[in-house]
Design brief:
Strand content: 15-25%
Number of helices: 12
Helix content: 25-40%
Order of helices and strands: HHEHEHHEEHHHEEEEEEHEEEHEHH
Shape: globular
Mean pLDDT: 87
Largest sheet: 8 strands, mixed
Structural class: alpha+beta
Number of strands: 14
Length: 356
């Protein structure tokens, strides 16, 4: 990796959390930052703690209907019976902890480039907010061997094998969920020709855009004054999150912020912007954030998006017409790359910019 300027490095490098005893001013989120904590005109308080996101067993005969209802009303659900081996999930968690426990100087050897890609660094949404987040991350796009070798020169294969296996199984699970949702929308999966080709095992030049994001939210001396990950929606079709510690919150217009309490062995499924557009707004792209705990929190997120050249527009069907969405497209046509670029410049304003 070429040398980075001081400004570029500072934009990417997380705080050395182990070296601070108090929260530095750069990471203090005050009441005046409420506009960044929640949508305009909404107070930052949380909803009824008894309110919880749906928990769905994929083996339930009614799972397709339950999944689609959760997508419409919540944009998020917790999934059990998903088929990802518990041992593999434990190994991913263990290797994530091992990575973030490395000394700062070691992690900086694999600093992510300003343009993205694989590597260590701050959350990519950081530039949109006035204060820094209590978070460090490691992004994996494609093979991770080159970076893993720099972290563990003589012991990197097991990390790579575990992450590769995890990504393959996550990809298969997400493609299963996408087929369920499209069927409920009465949309033929053949309209997503890249999905059909990919699921059939044929290699094509247009494959889904995927990324695995390892997250660490270090112990914080004053968690109420910090933010783990500021509010945003995901630039994906679907994101699957593995986390065993609370901290994730999702936003609903009718009630406000709702904490997602982890269910043992479950995965959290978030609906992203692309599925919101493809469904012509019928399916919710969930706004979410992560609060900070006094204790360390780890999470692993797998993002699945269309190929960069895929033309994104509402896939209208009778189901959408019957739902009140009508047959008029609510969003104009853009390629996935164009939308990703817009999101990189405007964050959550990107959806409003493609509304018709």
């Amino acid at each position: 990796m070429g040398a980075l300027s001081d400004s570029s490095r500072n934009h990417i490098i997380p705080l050395d959390f182990a070296s601070v005893q108090t929260v530095p001013e750069s990471h203090v989120w005050s009441e005046s930052d409420d506009e960044y904590r929640c949508p305009p005109g909404v107070r930052s308080g949380t909803a009824d703690p008894c309110l919880s996101v749906p928990v769905i067993d994929l083996w339930d005969p009614n799972a397709p209907e339950l999944i689609f209802e959760a997508c419409e009303k919540w944009g998020v659900f917790q999934l059990t019976g998903h088929g990802i081996p518990a041992k593999l999930m434990e190994e991913v968690e263990s290797k994530t902890q091992r990575l973030f426990s490395l000394p700062v100087d070691q992690k900086l050897k694999v600093l992510r480039s300003p343009g993205g890609g694989t590597g260590y660094g701050r959350a990519v949404i950081s530039p949109f907010f006035p204060k820094h987040m209590w978070h460090e991350g490691f992004t994996i796009r494609g093979p991770a061997a080159d970076h893993a070798k720099q972290l563990w020169p003589h012991d990197f294969e097991e990390f790579c094998e575990t992450m590769d296996d995890y990504q393959k199984q996550m990809k298969a699970l997400i493609e299963q969920l996408i087929h369920i949702i499209l069927k409920c929308l009465n949309i033929n999966p053949q309209q997503l020709n890249w999905l059909k080709s990919h699921c059939s095992g044929h290699e094509t030049s247009t494959t889904p855009g995927t990324a695995l994001q390892l997250n660490s939210y270090p112990p914080c001396p004053n968690p109420n004054r910090t933010m783990g990950l500021a509010q945003h929606t995901d630039t994906s079709l679907i994101t699957i999150l593995q986390a065993q510690t609370s901290g994730l919150q999702i936003f609903r217009d009718d009630v406000g912020w709702i904490s997602v309490q982890p269910v043992c062995g479950a995965l959290t499924v978030n609906i992203g912007d692309f599925l919101h557009v493809l469904s012509n707004g019928r399916i919710v792209s969930v706004l979410h954030r992560v609060l900070v705990n006094p204790v360390q929190r780890f999470s692993v997120a797998y993002f699945y998006a269309p190929p960069s050249d895929f033309v994104v527009s509402p896939l209208l069907s009778k189901a959408l017409g019957d739902s009140g969405q009508g047959t008029v497209a609510l969003f104009r046509t853009v390629t996935a790359k164009e939308f990703i670029d817009m999101k990189g410049k405007h964050l959550d304003r990107a959806l409003s910019l493609i509304k018709t």
